[in-house]
Amino acid sequence: MKYEAAKLKDISKALGLSVSTISRALHDSHEISEATKKMVRDYAESINYRPNPIAVSLREKRTRSIGVIIAEIANSFFSQIINGIESVAFIKGYNVIITQSLESYERELNNINFLASHSVDGCLITVSTETSNYDHITKLYKNGFPVVFFDRVVEEIKTHKISIDNFKGAYDATTELIKCGFKRIAMLANAEHLSITQERLAGYKKALTDAGCAVDNSLIKYCRHGGMIYEEVEQSMNEAMQLSNTPDAFFAASDKLTTNFVRYCTAKKIKIPDELGLIGFSNLDLTDLLVPSLSVIRQPAFEMGRIATELLIKTIEARRPIVDFERKILQPELLIRESSKKRKK
Amino acid sequence: MKYEAAKLKDISKALGLSVSTISRALHDSHEISEATKKMVRDYAESINYRPNPIAVSLREKRTRSIGVIIAEIANSFFSQIINGIESVAFIKGYNVIITQSLESYERELNNINFLASHSVDGCLITVSTETSNYDHITKLYKNGFPVVFFDRVVEEIKTHKISIDNFKGAYDATTELIKCGFKRIAMLANAEHLSITQERLAGYKKALTDAGCAVDNSLIKYCRHGGMIYEEVEQSMNEAMQLSNTPDAFFAASDKLTTNFVRYCTAKKIKIPDELGLIGFSNLDLTDLLVPSLSVIRQPAFEMGRIATELLIKTIEARRPIVDFERKILQPELLIRESSKKRKK
DNA sequence: TTGAAAGCGCTAACAA
DNA sequence: TTGTTAGCGCTTTCAA
């Protein structure tokens, strides 16, 4: 079954003009008479002619589309980023091809290879939790394929990067928990090697030491899939809650870790914040409707998508290779609600 | 800045063979000797050769990709559908291009025109709430462009359609509210002309009349953007709550209507279910964590995406035009939790 | 078993 | 102002 669309040749035959004249007329070239242009345009309109983007891409060696690799669409943080990406891509006339790694290195590899093999002009990437080898990205970048990192960036690769101030987000959250009177603050962390994990971990530790609290490594629980799988959060929580000196609050370092923390507490009938305080990263719209409402670190996700896309398109459209790469850091926002408010006993 | 990938010609030059021999060798043609094949394959591998998908598409008049038009990525129901779509597309070797209408007819038109102009081999569509004229889709379909509708289907167009049993979902939800003792059950509905709205409305009405309750049209509130905008829900709710005989429960007919209903009640300090009972359509993972936990109608979204994609790929790969179109109806699931449990006073 | 050449739909350099 | 032609990277028919 095939769909036969009109092509230049069809118009050319119908009007008795050459294909190049049609092409030029449709591109409003100055070397075509107004009369011809009008005739061509009217006819093209009447048969609903659309240039074949595949042919144009082949010719122009560009697709006017950009690729995106995110971890998971079903995650508010990423879907808000996508909205930011689309908002500028739309204006600039680029199409967006979204792919998900689902936190799998293999899928990421697959996606990036597809995208880079001339399917898109450039790529926006946040690496999967499983990714610790970056050869597949380095190779592209060395070949001149434009890549911009967002959120989970790779320091070794020199290109535009945009992330949020993860250190500050973590520092402020932890400090707030300390101020609220929590004594043993645990951290539910994402995969250990990720840039965001390291930065958030550093912020968490600094806040503790600045407040004169000791850092207890048994209170730091890594979740290899970033909390995407409930069972890993459950296991981490079980381990933490079985310590001789159990934590009295948690700092959850990602969207999914935060919601799965709440799910765990609900399942185990652990009262937030009385038994366990919580501040977590989350971009979910509903966190203020939970009971208790969640104190969260909210990331400017839409903004991040917007800026990343602007940088990527700038790179794609640059005449000469970019040497001066930008490193943008956006500020997170700490929204203090009930889950971090320790009640006096 | 451009990215130069290896092409057949490069291999041809390097090995002193013709381009056609290289092409055949890489396709494992029987007319090429094993020795040549091995040499070509090894060399291609060594330089990491990938065929240019644009050139292949132009040649083969197919792109091995499918397009998707959904309302909004940042909506659990749709993001779950996307996961279903990707799961089968991935296996069948198709790429997925996702576009959002954001409930705008203009954007939908834009997206579908882009996708249909040879960018993809076929399309999965759920129409926007604003769409009431279907000429743009009819035109494509008449030209033989494969289209499969899911969720919000268009009856006038003869093609594969997959949706859930909206009548039953609404009927069961309303009946449950009646059984729980609610007397004046209002409906928060999506845009009036949508297929899903009509079906859910019919189920709601039938449940009322079957139970001997009168249908009161002042209790049916349409939201043109399907609840995507909080203000429209707020206005509808305000109107409903100012009636002389206010409702004591709501049936919310979409994901966003359900969550924005909760948002409204929280803002106005209306207690669910004591002051207002609720059952709503929702595929959000978190509805069981809200207090009270929400009684919801859950749709098999992943499944819907999966089946829609299978039907689309079947259509794309069919040798002859399809005349027998399928109409699949999936069953929703009613999860009864606390928001619909009227307490004795 | 291999090569030459045409053609997919489009644009643009060169001719007229 | 318009037409002719080459070529983007690939597959495939026809010829050798």
From TrEMBL, chains A, B:
Signal peptide: none
Gene3D superfamilies named in the record: 3.40.50.2300, lambda repressor-like DNA-binding domains
Domain HTH lacI-type intervals: 6-60
GO molecular function terms noted in the UniProt entry: DNA-binding transcription factor activity; transcription cis-regulatory region binding
Keywords linked to the UniProt accession: DNA-binding, Transcription, Transcription regulation
Pfam family, one: LacI
PANTHER family documented for this protein: HTH-TYPE TRANSCRIPTIONAL REGULATOR GALS, LACI-RELATED TRANSCRIPTIONAL REPRESSOR
Protein name: LacI family transcriptional regulator
Source organism: Ilyomonas limi
